[in-house]
Amino acid sequence: MGITGVNYAVAETGTVVLVENEGNIRLTNSLPRVHVALMGMERLVPSTADLAVMLRVLARSATGQKLSVYTDLITGPRRSGDLDGPQEMHIVILDNGRSRLRGTDTEEILLCIRCGACLNACPVYREIGGHAYGSVYSGPIGAVLTPALRGIAEWHDLPEASSLCGACREVCPVRIDIPRMLLSARAQSFEQGYSPKWTVPLLKVYGFAATRPRLFRLAASIARSTSRAMAQGGWISRAPWPLSGWTKSRLLPALAPRTFTEELALMRRRRS
Predict the structure, then answer these.
(1) Spatial distance between the Cα atoms of 35 and 13, rounded to a whole number of angstroms
(2) What string of DSSP letters covers 173-230?
(3) Phi and psi of 79, rounded to 5°?
(4) How far is 62 from 119, CA to CA, in rounded Å?
(5) Which residue range forms the structural domain that includes residue 6?
(6) Are residues 51 and 106 in the same domain?
(7) Residue 255 CB partners (closer than 8 Å, separation 6+)
């Protein structure tokens, strides 16, 4: 028995669509006697015309290709006269909490086509990688989808792992507003008491300094000098709490020698 996922399924024809660049899936769905396709309920598209659009969008957003190397359209098991294919085909449609998202603040997440563009653009994901998310759905999309499907109690830390820069929203081919949903998840986590208690006083201190430019510049200068004094070759291997959690498993980059404002002023002087 060969087991595959499903990239898209066409409601008009009952066709299962598998997209890849390696060829492994083609072996799995043609050589075994039985093919089982596991499909999330949101993978359905209405017609083949819609499928054509989605295939172009998926490949270009994922890898920059016009079309993936292997695109299999499967409508049932092997027929009389076919040279290969399974004798039996079974499609398992998974809900697994997806229907509960309908009508909620995170319903929009079901529009995801799994292209991975948000992962490539996310500054946090590029640093920590996928395994740190503890879920099969990593990156910005996973930071929303995993708590939505499995509960904020166990996964309240994932929405915090974001700079809210908006890069994920900009590159998303279907324009899913991930930052909005991350903020919503953070608010839910705070309301239910899962956020760390030290964040409230810390944010108050930050707000006090951020609204006073001279104090903020002084604090930034001290932090910059301190971080560069602790660094070796531009990287910090041991940091004080609360950054010590990061440096237990990876290096922390020291702050830049100049702020953005200083760098911009320097560029202007050079041009003049």
Answers:
(1) 18
(2) TT---HHHHHHHHHHHHHHTT-S-TTHHHHHHHHHHHHTSHHHHHHHHHHHHHHHHHH
(3) -100, 170
(4) 10
(5) 2-94
(6) no
(7) 223, 224, 227, 228
Confidence at residue 5, expressed as pLDDT on a 0 to 100 scale? 94
Burial class (CB in 10 A: 0-12, 13-18, 19+), 4: buried
Q: What is the per-residue pLDDT across 20-69, written as a single tens digit (0 to 9) for each?
A: 998 889 999 999 999 999 999 999 999 999 999 999 999 999 999 999 99
Question: Considering 150, 168, 191, which residue would you say is the last residue of a domain?
Answer: 191
The number of domains in the chain is 3
Q: Which of 9-13, 101-105, 147-151, 237-241 comes out lowest in average pLDDT?
A: 237-241
Domain end among 163, 191, 219: 191
**pLDDT tens-digit map of 160-197:** 989 999 999 999 999 999 999 999 999 999 889 888 77
CATH number at residue 41: 3.40.50.10420
Residues 9 and 84 in one domain: yes
171 sits in the region (left: phi over 0; alpha: psi -120 to 50; else beta) called alpha
Residues 81 and 11 in one domain: yes
pTM above 0.85, yes or no: no
CA angle (108, 110, 35) in 5-degree steps: 175
Q: Are 170 and 125 members of one domain?
A: yes
